[in-house]
Amino acid sequence: MPHFGTKRFSMLKQPLAIMLKHLLATLPLAVLLGACADPAQEATEAVTAAFGPKGTTEISEIEQYPSGVLCGMYERFDRWGESSSKRRFVYVDGEARVRPSREDLAVYCAENPKQVVEAMLGIPVSGDSAAHTARAAADMAMLAATLERYYMENGGYPSTEQGLASLVSKPESAKPLDNYPEGGYLEALPKDPWNRPYVYEGPAWGGVRSPYQLQTYGADGKPGGSGPDADIRSDKLEYLAFAAGL
């Protein structure tokens, strides 16, 4: 009597193996790893790594918030088992912030970050004015990235007097700017959503790496205000971008 079972199984087995091999080869690695990734474990490892190999870290009270942010508590123990007081951490975009600011905690560890950002900064990230906020934030993010390139290639940021025009044409400078690119960094400077120039103030001590200020004064063109008239500043871009992306 003919025996078909083994032959038939082997005929099916080979194509199936080939199909699985092809599927695994073509799927992005991130998809394969992401399917079994544990966000809480990732946060725990990131917080522990932030302190290096000395001592141990215990994580507790982890809660998840919008956009996959994790907030929780950690406690550090030295090699003698003595512990410090519990502290809060924020895990956002793969980064563990073990000394988060009040603004970090207020925005990232909130059920409604948009509402918090609007209340905290007075800047609309929803409703009719949200498009203006998003455009201003995008412009300033681009200008900030260009200013970082200027800093890396020229050893400092432009002064207040040199201004953002330094990104378009080579400014007069007491020190040589040998790495300044021919044609500048930008062809032209963007205007804010109300068709006014962005306001730039250079670092207080010239070109050293200290904070500069980049902002727009909102719809009314005057410092201060809230809602559509609120100032939008570069040092708050992180929170605006996060809230706008939800």
Automatic annotation (TrEMBL):
Xref: Gene3D superfamilies: Glycoprotein, Type 4 Pilin
SUPFAM superfamilies: Pili subunits
Domain of life, per lineage: Bacteria
Gene Ontology biological process terms in this record: protein secretion by the type II secretion system
InterPro entries: Pilin-like, T2SS_protein-GspG_C, Type2_sec_GspG
Type II secretion system protein GspG C-terminal domain segment(s): 129-234
CC terms in the record's Gene Ontology section: type II protein secretion system complex
Keywords in alphabetical order: Signal
Name of the protein in question: Type II secretion system protein GspG
Protein source organism: Parahaliea maris
Signal peptide start and end residues: 1-37
